[in-house]
Amino acid sequence: MNIKIPSIQPHAETRAKQLEAWQQLITDYLKTTKQSTIDVRESQNCPLFNNATINRKLSQESLLIILEEMGKTGRAAPFDKSKNVWEVYWHSLDEWGNMLYNWASSNGLNNTVCTLFEIREGDNTVGEEFHGLDINVLIKALKALEVKGRCELMEFDDNQGVKFF
Fold it and tell me: Are 49 and 57 a contacting pair, CB within 8 Å?
């Protein structure tokens, strides 16, 4: 079986549209499946990058180009220097932080400590887009919020929490 591997287009305008389309597909897919990481080495096993029906797959090299492009806009970041595993954000860390802050404010939780477990899995967050969010993404979003002086991350009794201001 001869599998065709599409490449990233060389023409600048076509390439920009192709990269934009792939970025949207990736973020939509991860949002739908509630995932936040992509392992480039395992990408050939993912239906998003391997369409057996039409014998097409996205090469690891092309995926890396797409992820690097997403990194330039704050939509992805490599876990390590090898760039094999990437965190992908279907919202920027600032957007996640703003959602969390707005939720805390609208629920009267300013100056109250919430555990990260409560935020990720609590009854009060069911229906919120950040419910079930990957813990690493949650912490990075809260750290971005902390830099702005809108919250403080804290650790206590083998637990992590946040106090919103």
Answer: yes
Q: Using one digit for the tens of pLDDT, what is the confidence trace for 96-109? A: 999 999 999 999 99
Phi, psi of 48 (to 5 degrees): -65, -35
| Cα separation, 151 vs 164, whole angstroms | 4
Structural domains present in the chain: 12-88 (1.10.10.570), 93-164 (1.10.10.10)
Give me Rg for the CA atoms of the chain: 18
Could you give the CA distance from residue 108 to residue 114 in angstroms, rounded to a whole number? 12
Query: What pLDDT, on the 0 to 100 scale, is given for residue 1?
Result: 42
Residues 63 and 43 sit within 8 Å (Cβ to Cβ): yes
Report the amino acid identity of residue 62: S
First to last CA, the chain: 59
